[in-house]
Amino acid sequence: MSKEDKRNHFKAILGLIDNFERQSQSLAACGQLCQTELFRRATSTLFYLAMPSEISLEMAMQQAFDMGKTVLVPSVNWETKEMFAIRLSSMDCEMETCRYGLKEPVEKETYPISNIELVIVPALGYDIKGYRLGRGGGFYDRFLARQELQATTCGFVFEDQVTDSIPIDQHDVAVDMIVTDQQVRLIQ
Question: What is the DSSP track for 151-173?
């Protein structure tokens, strides 16, 4: 199955999850994430702001705020195709909607990539070896490949978005763990 076929497959799976299930499974996955030693130990985490069909990280983000951690979200420069980490001041700070319905904080205080300890990486799907299938823009691939990033990486998806294998390219990098609504997989 090609990458495009896999993308369509995962988009169809996401389309079948109703709002109640999405909320319930998101809370379960956040609970799994918050119990990991990697989450508890990290003082700065780059989360993502979920699109309507994606698994939500809101509960884990609130937990990070409650624990006094630095909460970060991505910001994209569409001209240079670069992604940056932006400090989120609170869960109810003012947001703007950018391309493709992506949300970003209005106030953009960038955070040094070298200081990020944990990166939560969205995807349409993951395989059991930790390789991801993104939406095709390459923003996370380029971000994760940056030399100064020494963070642990964590895939965060619904269990139905994990498959045996995904077609990979030479530049693809596996995440260190995958957290779903059902389990935590540490990648060897």
Answer: -EEEEE--GGGEES-----TT--
> Which tops the pLDDT comparison, 99 or 14?
14
Domains of the chain, with CATH numbers?
Answer: 3-186 (3.40.50.10420)
**pTM, to two decimals:** 0.93
Contact call for residues 11 and 21 (beta carbons, < 8 A) = no
Its sign, for the CA torsion 10, 42, 30, 103, is negative
CA distances from 150 to 36, 65, 87, 112, 176 (A): 19, 22, 18, 11, 12
DSSP structure string for 107-147: S--B--GGG--EEEE--SEEETTS-EE--SS-HHHHHHT-T
User: What residue ranges in 18-100 does DSSP mark as E strands?
Assistant: 44-46, 70-77, 82-87, 95-97
pLDDT digits (tens, 9 = 90+) for 40-67: 999 999 999 998 889 999 999 999 999 9
